[in-house]
């Protein structure tokens, strides 16, 4: 299961206390994936999570938490697949970021589902053969 930035950020960066029921369900699903050893991370998601943190202590704390998860290797074929699906989506009027399409390429190549809170992935799934994780209210 490839866990997108939106879920990692919800779990590790979002202040606790004022979470919606949807968010609580997503966090519970993430915990279950982690406990089962099924949560996967790629380097570009790690970079997104660590970017934009102003306080060095907060950066170090998050960096240390993320070090519990190794980065899945990304291959040349993954990058080529990401470009292919980006092109296909654009042809059909669906735009997205390079990282989003890399997530799609990695997930497709490995047969993984994508766990995300980003509704853009629903649009990608209309073009690319990605499978979205829908346990609880993941989207």
Could you characterize what this model shows?
This protein has 139 residues and is mostly helical. The chain is built from seven helices and three strands, in the order βααααααβαβ. The chain has one domain (2-132): Rossmann fold (3-Layer(aba) Sandwich), CATH 3.40.50.1010. It has helices at residues 5-12, 21-35, 43-50, 56-66, 76-91, 98-110, 120-125; strands at residues 2-3, 113-115, 131-132. Helix 1 packs across helix 2.
How do the helices and strands line up, and which of them pair or pack?
Blueprint: E1 2-3, H1 5-12, H2 21-35, H3 43-50, H4 56-66, H5 76-91, H6 98-110, E2 113-115, H7 120-125, E3 131-132
Parallel strand pairs: 1-2, 2-3
Supply database-style keywords.
139 residues; mainly alpha; Rossmann fold
Could you say which overall geometry the principal axes of the C-alpha atoms support? Answer: globular
- What is the structural class? mainly alpha
Task: Identify the CATH homologous superfamily.
Answer: 5'-nuclease
The number of distinct β-strands equals: 3
- The separation of the N and C termini measures 15 Å
What fold name goes in the CATH topology slot? Answer: Rossmann fold
CATH architecture type: 3-Layer(aba) Sandwich
Binned strand content: 5-15%
Please give the radius of gyration in angstroms: 15 Å
Instruction: Please trace the helix and strand order, writing H or E for each element.
Output: EHHHHHHEHE
Arithmetic mean pLDDT: 93
Describe this structure in a few short sentences.
With 139 residues, the chain is mostly helical. It has one domain (2-132): Rossmann fold (3-Layer(aba) Sandwich), CATH 3.40.50.1010.
